[in-house]
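Many introductory courses stop at the sequence. We go one step further.
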Amino acid sequence: MKKNHILTEIIVNVHPLEKRVAVLEENKLVELFIEKLDKQNIVGNIYKGTVKDVLPGMGAAFIDIGLERTAFLHYSDIVMDFLDIFEKEHPRHHMPRGDSSKITQLLKPGQEIVVQVHKGPIGSKGARLTGQISIPGKYLVYFPNKNKIAISRKISGSSEKNRIRNILSNLKAKDVGLIVRTEAEGNSEEDFTNEYKALDKTWRLIEKELASAKPPTCIFEENALENYLIRDLFGEHVDRLVIDDKAFAKQIVTQLEDLAPELVSKVEVYKEDSPIFDAWAIEKKIETIFHSRVYLPSGGNIRIEQTEALVAVDVNTGSFTGSNNYSETIKKTNIEAASEIARQIRLRDLSGVIVVDFIDMVDEHHRQEVLEAFRIGLNRDRAKNKLYSFTELGLVEVTRKRMRTSLVANYSEPCPNCNGTGKILSRDAVVMRIYRWLGRAEYFIRNDKLRILVHPNVMDFINKNRDYFVTYQQQVDFVVDESVRQDSFRILSLPDEKDITSKYTT
């Protein structure tokens, strides 16, 4: 093991309502990914759709891809390669030049078309589409019907770029374009060969599906958790991947055998009775994500406030008094805070402009030490970010691109009692907490009858998803209780109606 190696574990919890992936570094939760059945990310998905409307005045068309709202395709995003895929008799080889009103020369209502989602739906707006198809891998992005090789600017050194370009030029087909991702730096020819073959195989399967599928339909899910897990999370730097579902683990192993066979031995199936997230104390760590205040080992703390315009982070010494040297005390607190803020940014997927108000420091060397600690923490973040130096007011700014739907958005919904200014735990999140409570208590309450009191909104969700509690249907009786908050529940043991809710919480 390398001297500076960071112990990294990926823990996966699978349930019909949601899949959760936790990334731990030295047993600290640094990233959490959630794929909910009703909140899946469609960006990057490839669809076979049907043109519903063509609007020359807007230079755009509305495409039915099977979602609630039709999706938007602008003239500038049309690519001829995939426009003529279903028009073998009269193919058009060139885009008509000129203004976007000529879109009617390319698209007609009822026409079948292949598209990829560029931006997801927002509010009342449908998804934004592109005709340029691409398939991302861990090291490469595959472009069918293209020819160019582009290499990430972050890969340093012309010799390394030339080495990669030579490998790929000899490897790829003439009608395939490739973008080389930053993670590819230093990879062997075998690594590139394995990934290219896997991506090429994926495209051939997509082509086959496109030929027979009836629109509107999704042909390829880019952000399916298994794809994201293999492509972006699981690599040589990870010590183990532990999954509590045999079928999902088998699915991961099957894909790895084609893409990265050397990683297969790191995949484990969790076989213990206790819930997997409890075994690694992850549930308790998740709870802290929703706290605005985070405590530091020394006794100091940071406070995180999210607004529409920016994220504000304030650093405080709290109970930490340290030694007699006040400036050293402040420096130590700020360095601790910098490392923790970098972790919280990854964990909460904070994005946009992040402003940090460290405790005032006079010594410029101390400021640079704090910035360096912050920079080291942010370097482990896969999202694009930029750290700026201290301003005249002593503030530090970070800009960061969002990786996914934020955890707050995933686990909450607008509060009906405050006109959308606050958030409460969503109904499905409450149901998942009940489910995990039952799993945690199962061994101890095997023969007990239970009554679970829930808010009417939660009961409505349970009634629509009874199958998830089929294991407990003879044991559990759900009852509406108006006094129970939507983000809570109470569990009573029968017949004495003793409240045992807190007995098996994390």
